[in-house]
Recover the amino acids of this structure.
């Protein structure tokens, strides 16, 4: 299978990161980390995910963000999208269960590319 072109980008913010191994917000952080990505967990609940510094908001991240992976419900996602627009993020990855037509339409209307797929599947998990 051909590698997804977005996997060339190394700085991935994961919104909805979790410390619970049973949650996708944890599995995605760990899989991206083990695949040599610079993972930037975003959650107001925790200061780190297994030793990886976590951020309360996207705007707390000082370095570049290439892709924002959404692991939150669409009602939270629309607020995160507003922050993506403010920060100039141009790529968002929507996990299953995070998608709404409002979110996708607003992202595209603001020049943001959208992928709707499970990153774990794309990474061969």
């Amino acid at each position: 299978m051909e590698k997804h072109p977005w996997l060339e980008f190394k700085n991935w913010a994961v919104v909805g990161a979790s410390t619970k191994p049973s949650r996708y917000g944890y599995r995605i952080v760990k899989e991206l980390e083990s695949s040599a990505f610079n993972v930037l967990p975003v959650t107001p609940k925790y200061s780190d995910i297994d030793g990886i510094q976590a951020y309360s908001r996207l705007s707390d991240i000082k370095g570049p963000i290439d892709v924002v992976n959404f692991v939150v419900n669409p009602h939270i996602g629309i607020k995160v999208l507003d922050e993506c627009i403010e920060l100039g993020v141009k790529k968002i990855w929507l996990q299953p269960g995070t998608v709404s037509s409002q979110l996708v339409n607003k992202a595209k209307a603001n020049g943001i590319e959208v992928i709707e797929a499970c990153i774990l599947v794309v990474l061969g998990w």
Notes: The longest strand covers residues 11-15. Residues 74-87 form the longest helix (14 residues). The helical segments are 24-34, 74-87, 101-109, 119-122. The chain has one domain: 5-122.
